[in-house]
Fold each of these.
Amino acid sequence: MKTLVLFYSLTGNTEKIANGIAAKLNSDIEEIFDKKNRNGFFGHLVAGKDAVLRKFTEIEEVKKDLSQYDLVVVGTPVWAWGMTPAIRTYLSKNKFNKLAFFCTQGGSGGERTFRGMEEMTKQPVAVLSLIEKEIKNNHYQGKVKEFCDKLKQ
Ligand SMILES: Cc1cc2nc3c(=O)[nH]c(=O)nc-3n(C[C@H](O)[C@H](O)[C@H](O)COP(=O)(O)O)c2cc1C
C-alpha cells in the first residue's frame, strides 16, 4: 500500500510525529506550509482567531500527487479545539481514497478536531492524538507504533 504522510506544524511537535510515522510506514512525507506568518505572540493570537472562525488560508503548493497514494495520513496541531487553517484549506481542496488522522495538542480538543476533519472528508481508518508533554518526554513511541500497525493491516 502506497502511503503519504501530510502535515502542518508550527513549532515542531506535529513534524516530529509525522517523521516517526513516515519512518515506521516507510512512506512518503510532505509538509504543508501556511503563507501567513503565524509566529510570535501576535501570530499566535491571529492563528487562534482564524481557527475559531474556521478560516481558510493560503498554502504553498503541495508537490505530491494524491492519486498516486492508497492511504493519506494527515496531521495537524490542535488550534482552538480544531484543525489549523492550513489543514482545513488542504482538506477542502482535495479528494481522498483512504484517510487517517493524527493531531498534537496541549491537552484538549483532539476529538473535536478529528470530527471536523471527518466532516470535511470521510471516516478515517485510524486516528492518533498526542499531548505535547508526552512528545517532549519522548513517551509517544508506543502509541505511534499501535497507530502504524493499524494502518498496515
Ligand atoms: C494558536 C494556537 C492555539 C492552540 N489551541 C490549542 C487548543 O485548543 N487545545 C490544545 O490542547 N492545545 C492548543 N494549542 C497547543 C498546540 O496544539 C500544541 O502545542 C501542538 O503540539 C503544537 O504543534 P506544532 O508544534 O506541530 O505546531 C494551541 C497552540 C496555538 C499556537
Amino acid sequence: MKVLMINGSTRQNGNTNAVLGVIEGILHAEDIDTEVFWVGNEPIRDCTGCGSCKRTLDDSCIFKDDYINELIGKAREADGFVFGSPVYYSHPTGALLSVLNRVYYSASNVLRGKPGCSFIIARRAGTSLALQVLNQYFLYNEMPLVSGSYWAMLHGAKPEEVFQDEEGMQTIRNMSRNLAHVMKSLKIARESGLVKPKNEYGARTSFIR
Ligand SMILES: Cc1cc2nc3c(=O)[nH]c(=O)nc-3n(C[C@H](O)[C@H](O)[C@H](O)COP(=O)(O)O)c2cc1C
C-alpha cells in the first residue's frame, strides 16, 4: 500500500516537508510506502472551470502543460493521502488550492473512497480555517477523513521550528498511526468481500429561482 503526500508549501524543505518526513517514518514502520509530491514554487494554473473534463470524463485535466495529470496518475496508484500546507493568510497556499481544485474537479474518481488526512502549519494563527479547507476535499468525495488526537495543526516559522510544538507533533504522530490503521482495515474489508455502497449521483440543485 502507498500514501501520496502533497507538500503544499512553496518552500520545498520548510516546516511542512519536515512534518511529512515524520509521517513517512511512521508509515514506513507500518510497511506502507510513501511518496512526497511538492507543489513547487513556479506559477501553477488554477481550475478555469472550462468544463472540458466533464465532457471527456477521462479523469484528466485538459491543460497538459504542467504536472497535474502526472499527479492524477500518482493519485490513481495511491491507497491513501496526506495533504500538508502552511497557512498563507488564513488559508492553505494558493498553489495547493489550485492543485487540489484541478485534481478533484477533473479526476475525483481516482481519489474517491480512499482515506486521508491533512495538517496545517502556521507561525501564529489562521490554522482552524485553513485546516477546514483542506479537510473539506476529503469530505466532499466519500473519502474517510482520518483524525489524530487533537487539532492537526503545528506552530513554527523557521524550518524545523515545528518540532518544538510537542502537542502538535504528538497529534500528527497519532494521526499517522490512525491513517495506517484505517488503510489496513479497509484492505482487510476489501479482501473479505465487503463492497462499497452503491451510491447515487447526478442531482444538482443550484438554488436558482
Ligand atoms: C505569504 C505568506 C502568508 C502567511 N500567512 C500566515 C498567516 O496568516 N498566519 C500565520 O500564522 N503564518 C503565516 N505565514 C507563516 C507560515 O505559515 C509559516 O512560516 C510556516 O511555518 C511556513 O511553512 P513552510 O516552512 O512549510 O513553508 C505566512 C507566510 C507566507 C509566506
